[in-house]
């Protein structure tokens, strides 16, 4: 059974919005268990839009990609070496 654990915020109106960007859960029925978090989450550290881009430039962030967990150890297997032949 595939599982996904996340922490979410229940809005003042009692609504729980859970964005799930995981293809394995698309168009499926899921069970949701709700319990209080041991520590409140600090949403003040979340940057969006221009603020996030500015910080990325300041720290020298180059980019990211979605890949399998072992990608950092076997990335050379995925490179195109055809121009080196």
| Continuous helix count | 2
Mean pLDDT: 77
**In this structure, how is the largest beta sheet organized?**
none
Shape: flat
Report the count of strand segments.
Answer: 0
Determine the strand fraction and express it as a percent band.
under 5%
Order of helix and strand elements from N to C terminus = HH
Offer a concise description of the structure.
The chain is an all-alpha fold and 85 residues long. It has helices at residues 50-59, 71-74.
What tags apply to this protein structure?
mainly alpha, flat, 85 residues
Walkthrough of the structure:
The protein has helices at residues 50-59, 71-74. The protein contains two helices and no strands. The protein is flat, with a radius of gyration of 19 Å. It is mainly α.
């Amino acid at each position: 059974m595939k599982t996904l654990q996340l922490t979410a915020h229940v809005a003042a109106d009692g609504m729980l919005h859970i964005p799930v960007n995981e293809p394995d859960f698309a168009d499926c029925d899921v069970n949701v268990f709700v319990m209080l978090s041991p520590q409140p989450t600090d949403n003040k550290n979340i940057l969006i839009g221009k603020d996030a881009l500015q910080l990325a430039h300041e720290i020298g962030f180059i980019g990211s990609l979605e890949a399998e967990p072992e990608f950092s150890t076997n990335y050379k297997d995925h490179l195109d070496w055809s121009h080196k032949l």
